[in-house]
């Protein structure tokens, strides 16, 4: 059973790296207009993949669509690199490379959890059925990713009135 819980590790590692990138690097340097739009879009592509895994069945067509969404998401996250080349520190570049590695692995975990979520005992090998309890975390991943997307949109895209600090 421990092996099945390892399927959550890539999602947890990606979330941790994203949080550090967002709350350390992005807050430290600020984001230009391209990134203010691009970063929430990246999160939205991940959210779409998780939503597909939550709301569809893993039949042949469904899996083909998921693979297409996952590939599109993995490519979409690289779109900001020409901006990052000018504005990021070497440490932030390194963290982005880690995120580029984790993203498709995390999407692979979502895909495996998606199939496990729908696996009836006897339809697939025992391992898949034993992973079904872990797949119950997919709605949590969806909710956390959705909350992060809402944060990004409101923090970076909505122009909140700025008040001078009180003394």
Task: Please describe what this structure looks like.
With 167 residues, this protein is mostly helical. The chain has one domain. 78% of the residues lie in helices and 0% in strands. It contains 8 helices and no strands. Helix 6 crosses helix 7 (126-135). Residues 163-167 have low confidence and may be disordered.
Key features?
elongated
Short description:
It is built from eight helices and no strands.
User: Uncertain regions: pLDDT < 50 for 5+ in a row?
Assistant: 163-167
Oligomer: single chain
What is the mean pLDDT? 86
Indicate the radius of gyration in whole angstroms: 18 Å
Question: Which structural category do the helix and sheet elements fall into?
Answer: mainly alpha
Gap between N and C termini: 56 Å
Annotation, overall tally of beta strands: 0
> Judging from the principal axes of the Cα atoms, what is the shape?
elongated
Number of helices in the DSSP assignment: 8
Biggest sheet descriptor = none
Percent of residues in β-strands = under 5%
Determine the fraction of residues in helical runs and give it as a percent range.
over 70%
Taken in chain order, the helices and strands follow as HHHHHHHH
Count of domains: 1
Secondary-structure map:
Elements: H1 2-5, H2 9-29, H3 33-55, H4 60-76, H5 81-87, H6 90-118, H7 126-135, H8 138-157
Helix pairs in contact: 2-6, 3-4, 3-6, 3-8, 4-6, 6-7
